[in-house]
Amino acid sequence: MVDALKKNPSFKPRKGPVFLLILDGVGFGKYEDGDAFRQARTPNFDWLWNNCPHTTLKAHGTAVGLPSDADMGNSEVGHNAIGCGRVFAQGAKLVEEAIRSGAMFEGATWKKLVKNAVDNNGTLHFIGLFSDGNVHSHIDHLKAMLEQAKKEGVKRARVHTLLDGRDVGETSALEYIDPFEDFLASLNADGVDYRIASGGGRMFITMDRYGANWDMVKRGWETHVLGEGRQFLSAHEAIETLRKETGAIDQDLPSFVIAENGKPVGTIEDGDSVIFFNFRGDRALEMTAAFEEDDFPYFERKRRPKVEYAGMMEYDGDKHVPRQYLVSPPSIDRTVGEFLAASGITQLAISETQKFGHVTYFYNGNRTGKFNEELEDYIEIPSDVVPFEWRPWMKCAEITDVILDAFAKNKYRYIRANFANGDMVGHTGVFEAVICAMEAIDIQLGRIIKAVKEAGGILIVTADHGNSDDMYEHDKSGKLKTNEQGKPKAKTSHSLNPVPCIIYDPDYQGDYDTTLREGLGISSLGATVMELLGFIPPEDYDPSVVEVKK
Ligand SMILES: O=C(O)[C@H](O)COP(=O)(O)O
Ligand SMILES: [Mn+2]
Ligand SMILES: [Mn+2]
């Protein structure tokens, strides 16, 4: 447990709470075309921006612990940075390094899984997100593991491909599948038999999160493990056929099983080894539970093979899930939540299901538990289980209802919330729906501004990364890309754009400079929250955006 924070005698805490509002996926776009945030009518946000101290914060690449500045931000690294006030080398980088240095293949887990497959004359399976998005996974990690498996004598490997279209181009699956088939062909000599065995869109099978829709995981289990589902001769054929039939973009494509003479080529059997090759945990935890849990109430597994199972990383540092993993996760410690709990601060964390773990699990450094049961409340508003372009307002009003009630009762000193709209609707690629999402959020901002003023609190409006600000694809020269119909090509992934940081402090006492520091990243929000609660942040925290008089 960390020590309590020292109080700053020259800062008089306000009457009401400090409220950190994370507008998930809302940044400042580079292009006018496709910037739904800029084009939406947002009078309340505009009022805040025009009347309150503000700055922009970096939310991508090295500023959030990713390998390079070409990497867009994402919720995991974003909330980790916001919640721990510093930048840690993140999963994408740690796995890359473990492969480059060879440490992954010297580790006990890799050795055990390979030995298990070899000794049992079994199969080494890989399940994961099949792209180079570098948010949950990277295809290069998969390729490196297959090459190494061959070197170490694994004769049979099967790959279960979750098609992306969400962190990469919306219909880019074949750009990964086709070269990968060539890559597998190059390995398939000397009695080696490596193949794709199954697949489907990541939002249709396997990669649910936070218990929002267990049916997705059930369909994934049937596809990867049991080999049940529509059969095709190849992944290429499956994708082309399913696209024609459904018109779905990659993330939503139905599942498929690769079969020969009516027999699936890669069901998962007793004695096999399974690697879930995503390094990010939120969307890996449910399938991991299906493999690991004896007591599993979510769906009927029908058959649960006895396998050696490992994740790419430890996904939950509190519960130690999965039991085996290949690379140690970032050692995120001394988080804002832990310091505030040690300092006796009452806290509310709230969001809807889709982002609930973001303001709890990710914010607390990939731990599910609370630091102090008495001081902390975590509230989840159930998300809709429909395509979000049909309900772009999502649950921002219901979340605001709870927050306003907390304000009225002055129940907490620190509140943090996440509005999912900019991101979840942004990922659909439906521009008009994103405009509606932005305007829905803005209506709630109006209610919040009023409540903060009445309570005498401080509101910090920010985001974890961009998305809604960049809804159309542009080429390298900045030219708008168009589809076959001549319409702008939708972009479903996050952006590289900076995010807002606004401080609304209606009872401002002159105790900090209203010109905020420039050039910082979202990790600076950790110290900012602490300073605005009247504490002196730990020395190794990244600087706060406010310069508080000491
Ligand atoms: O998991 C997802 O939905 C996307 O890959 C990334 O979105 P998030 O980082 O905002 O959750
Ligand atoms: Mn996010
Ligand atoms: Mn997202």
From TrEMBL:
GO terms for molecular function: phosphoglycerate mutase activity. Pathway: Carbohydrate degradation; glycolysis; pyruvate from D-glyceraldehyde 3-phosphate: step 3/5. Residues 470-493 are annotated as: Disordered. The keyword NADP does not apply. It holds the Pfam family iPGM_N. Residues 95-316 form the BPG-independent PGAM N-terminal domain. Keywords: Glycolysis, Isomerase, Manganese, Metal-binding. Residues 17-535 form the Metalloenzyme domain. Belongs to the BPG-independent phosphoglycerate mutase family. This is 2,3-bisphosphoglycerate-independent phosphoglycerate mutase. It comes from Rarispira pelagica. The lineage of its organism: Bacteria, Pseudomonadati, Spirochaetota, Spirochaetia, Winmispirales. The gene is gpmI.
